[in-house]
Amino acid sequence: xxxxxxxxxxxxxxxxxxxxxxxxxxxxxxxxxxxxxxxxxxxxxxxxxxxxxxxxxxxxxxxxxxxxxxxxxxxxxxxxxxxxxxxxxxxxxxxxxxxxxxxxxxxxxxxxxxxxxxxxxxxxxxxxxxxxxxxxxxxxxxx
Amino acid sequence: xxxxxxxxxxxxxxxxxxxxxxxxxxxxxxxxxxxxxxxxxxxxxxxxxxxxxxxxxxxxxxxxxxxxxxxxxxxxxxxxxxxxxxxxxxxxxxxxxxxxxxxxxxxxxxxxxxxxxxxxxxxxxxxxxxxxxxxxxxxxxxx
Lengths: 143, 143
Known about the structure:
With 143 residues, chain A is of the alpha/beta class. Helix content of chain A is 43%, strand content 13%. In chain A, the strands form 2 sheets. Chain A has a two-stranded parallel ribbon. In chain A, strands 3-4 form a two-stranded parallel sheet. In chain A, helix 2 packs parallel to helix 3.
């Protein structure tokens, strides 16, 4: 089974290079990625989409675009304080200094999923433990 | 080997539904499709892109995006008079009535490729003979 990762940062250097971080551009970013995920899924690939996807409405739209029966929403449930303590790219620090006014969770809302198909809690797993995440996804598919 | 067809008409109902037929929108249409073809190619698929792609500059850009060593430009070389006599969607007729001012080859330029990797001449093959086209592509890959 072939898999492919659609990574938000990578896509913003290519397909979505013309988009910024306004709400409209974030929505368009998600719409395009959902369309690409749908095409890749039609081509027989399992697609893992790694985007911030902060808005509930656009996540619902992505599900509708890809097809509801062929879509799992994975919520990596991590409190803002933990995200800030990790801050691998230094973005939270920049946001707190006012240099990234549209940072999700700081100057721009992050709307947590209410009915995610898979929930990954930060305090139940090691960060980056992909096999544990895969196990959760498989559990969900079998359940 | 998995293949996938990226069809211009289909993509304009999805990924590119926000785009029209102005030169800027046509260029953006081609840019996005090239980016998607690149992603699919990275995922191990053979991608067949069926677009009008009327402008030389954007075809060169598409080649650069996908990667020059991984890209074949196929020119389906058919004179305008033959295209008009076929007119399966009635678009040429509309264009001649002035109802499609930006039709490629009528109101908007079609710039024929100068160095296509594969040339399919309308008078050497049956229209729609995919196996003959595939043979031309394979010849090119082996040559």
